[in-house]
Amino acid sequence: MLTWAPGKARHNTPIITHGEGVYLYDDKGTKFLDWTSQAVCSNIGYDLPEAVIEATTKQMSTLPFVYGGLGISEVRARLSKLMTELLPGDLQGMVFPSCGSEANEAAIMMARRYTGKYKVINWYRSYHGGTSNSQQATGDFRRWFGGDHVPGFVKAFHPFPLFWDLAGATEEERTQHALNMLEEQILNEGPDSIAMVQFESVIGGGGVLVPPKGYMQGVRAMCDKYDILMHCDEVMVGFGRTGELFGFQNYEGVIPDIVTAAKGVTSAALPLSMTACRKHIMEAFEEKPLGWGSTYASHPVAMACAYENIKYLIKNDVIGHVQRLAPTLESEMRRLTENHPSIKQYRSIGMFGCFDAHLPDGSNPQLQHTAIDKAFVEYKKAYTANGLIGLLRPPHMHVAPPLVISEEELLDGFDRQDKALYALDDALGF
Ligand code: PMP
């Protein structure tokens, strides 16, 4: 097959022909349980509701496209209204780009133009996208690919002690310590130069990292104190993944100034994202243009899909379903961690979990890429042989099946992963 897929790791990837429920099938007829909703995006699986198909088909035949600079489609007005009702507080100014990276570009531009300041603070381990600013906002190795030489992006440590700890500290002490460090950083960078703090509500690709209790409230208060905007990137966790509609709703009382979402907006059936801001920010752009736009923004067919997808989530109480299954996901993760020496620890929230692999010598797995990467090649073979398909990001192993998975399917997925993990135990030398 002549398509450009760089890197040997991509070789021998299956040719996917169709999906059904929470399963994907390849051209050889193999059935895979989708263990990470692909890129944590196919949230309602592959049997799209009739309403989604009907609405997109109808939109396609009545008005397939309206350029945002020329007019507003009826569906854009309808989706904006729905989103304004669903978002808490006065979050309401919205643009609708086509992907998460673009939504974050729009957020960065919005924050810089609104505040007249330029620096953006992000966490190490975060991912914000593959376009120029969103890539530089990214805190993991993917930032390096873009050159890592763009000024204005400052990195802070995430407060979750992933492979280090403040020995014996309580959660409250960790929160306070992390907030003190962030404040020190803000003061040293100069609050007058900082436009916004841009954090994933829950770090997703970087390992399902939930900030300790009180931390996000502390960030909110610090942003108010220093006149800095607070942005929550909900691209991966928005629309139910954590058991709340938006991830930041896990932090009582926190309303960000800017919110971006993508993936779950349409459950990935069509490309669409969203950048929403609070009323006063929106109003500031009534006098001067935001200056952000793209040809495909507010694409009516994608918006018709989003509207019905969100209605489906609500009507079928998909978020309630996530909350009900979350304890099963958590206890199964504990079972597998106890069963496999190759797993150092796990974390979970809602329908979102992550195991971390480590080496027998106890060294920091983040510093041992080669050994762990090699072992993951063997693990991936076993994972696939046991009928799982999903993202593997050494040393992390995510668990993020479609939100609509049944309890039986979830337990079956963990049994498959349990079997596959023996290969990882062996490959890592346990
Ligand atoms: N932000 C977060 C938190 C993400 O997880 C991702 C994608 N994984 C992005 C932004 C970028 O989104 P996209 O790939 O749609 O551009």
Provide a descriptive summary of the structure in words.
With about 425 residues, this protein is of the alpha/beta class. It folds into two domains: about 10-35 and about 315-425, Alpha-Beta Complex (Aspartate Aminotransferase, domain 1), CATH 3.90.1150.10; about 50-315, Aspartate Aminotransferase, domain 2, CATH 3.40.640.10. The chain has 13 helices and 15 strands. Strands 4-10-9-8-7-5-6 form a seven-stranded mixed β-sheet, with helices on both faces. A hairpin with a 2-residue loop joins strand 11 and strand 12. Helix 2 (about 50-60) runs antiparallel to helix 10 (about 300-315) and helix 11 (about 320-340) packs parallel to helix 13. The longest helix is centred in the last third of the chain and has 22 residues, at about 320-340. The radius of gyration is 21 Å and the shape is globular. The two termini are about 40 Å apart. Bound molecules: 4'-deoxy-4'-aminopyridoxal-5'-phosphate (PMP). 4'-deoxy-4'-aminopyridoxal-5'-phosphate binds near residues 205, 235, 236 and 262. GO terms for molecular function: pyridoxal phosphate binding; transaminase activity. Keywords: Pyridoxal phosphate. Pfam families: Aminotran_3.
Q: How are strands sequenced across the largest beta sheet?
A: 4-10-9-8-7-5-6
The outline comes out as globular
Name the poorly predicted regions.
none
CATH architecture of the largest domain: 3-Layer(aba) Sandwich
